[in-house]
Amino acid sequence: MTTKDLKDIPVLATKDLVVFPNTSVPLAVASSANKINVKAASEEEKLIYIVPLKDGKHPKSFKIKDLYQTGTLCRIEQIKQQASGAYQLMLTSLKRISFENFSKDAEGVVRGLGAPIYYDYDLDKKVKVSDVDRVITAAQAYAIPDDSQLLHVLPRDYIIDQQNGIKEPLGMAGVRLETKVHLVTCNRNSAQNISSCMKACGITVEGFVLEQLASSYSVLSEDEKELGTCLIDMGGGTSDVAVFQNGAISHTANIPTSGDHITKDIARALQTPSMQAEELKKKYGCASSSKQWCKYLYPN
Asked: What is the C-alpha to C-alpha distance for residues 19 and 12, in angstroms, rounded to an integer?
């Protein structure tokens, strides 16, 4: 990385747009904040710094804290102002650069503060399988108790040059690859006991799978995982919970309340054996917050 003699370059904030070097980019600019910056750039060196906004913020109301540090330096080749006041730009992207800080002057122009850091960006440098494996291995460097073992490393999404929300990074160009993962651990002794039990039965254990994850393969579609779903697997002894968001697990939990607890409560309340309490639960049980709905289901 080397630094150039350019300073205080106007910023063009974008939503969900990544610009790679050595490309021509047509761009429409309608937000008032961005139009001020485009005008300043066109009156100076015709250089502008395209940088995406964090968390899908809209350019119309962005703040300095919403800007990523890394973006793309572009040269304005053509600029036309439409009747609506919006600018139509034709840009040539030059280099990936980074600013440590941003400033906003009295005229409302947002600029990258000081001299930028230029990245020696190679378009042929693309994310490979070995790169993905390396960041996933690095994500496992997390201190877990001695009585636990790592069960799963579940990637949620990947980040390339501070651009997050990437589901499949293979083949994409970039300098820095990161990932967000969901780590799942289990009790080491419990896993060993299950393996010993299976081995005594003549069964070889190849591996362990989180119960919520296995259940999701059976009952959830990819669309449901993408839209956002909370999967609750209510068993006999525990209830397992998994929250899916944007196609990946974002949270897992194990709740020590289940069907057996309800059966025992019925048996204790009615002073009846557990077998009869189980039959009553199956015949008359109703999972509804509305009493009227239960009466409709079971009028007798």
From this structure: 12
Q: Which residues sit opposite 12 in a β-bridge? A: 50
Does residue 177 contact residue 158 with C-beta atoms inside 8 Å? yes
Is residue 127 within 8 Å of 160, Cβ to Cβ? yes
Cβ proximity of 34 and 65 under 8 Å: no
Q: Residue 50 in contact with residue 23, Cβ under 8 Å?
A: no
Return d(Cα 94, Cα 5) in angstroms, integer: 15
The neighbour count for residue 87, using CB atoms within 10 Å, is 20
pLDDT tens across 165-208, in order?
Answer: 888 888 887 777 888 888 888 899 999 999 999 999 999 998 89
Contact 276, 284 (CB under 8 A): no
Whole-number pLDDT of residue 2: 37
CA distance 242 to 250: 8
Q: The tokens 């068993």 sit on which residue? A: 235
Q: Quick one: residue 40, left, alpha or beta (phi over 0 = left, psi -120 to 50 = alpha)?
A: alpha
Residues 6+ apart with CB under 8 A from 84: 30
3-class DSSP state for residue 58? Answer: coil
Taken in order of first residue, the domains within the chain and their CATH numbers are: 2-118 (2.30.130.40), 129-208 (no CATH), 259-297 (no CATH)
Higher-pLDDT residue of 3, 118? 118
Q: Decide: 41 and 30 in contact? Cβ < 8 Å.
A: no
Closest by Cα among 79, 56, 80, 51 to 67: 51
- 279 C-beta neighbours (distance < 10 Å), count: 14
Indicate whether this model's pTM tops 0.85: no
Contact 263, 281 (CB under 8 A): yes
Give the list of residues 6+ apart from residue 39 with CB closer than 8 angstroms, or none: none
- The mean pLDDT of the chain is 83
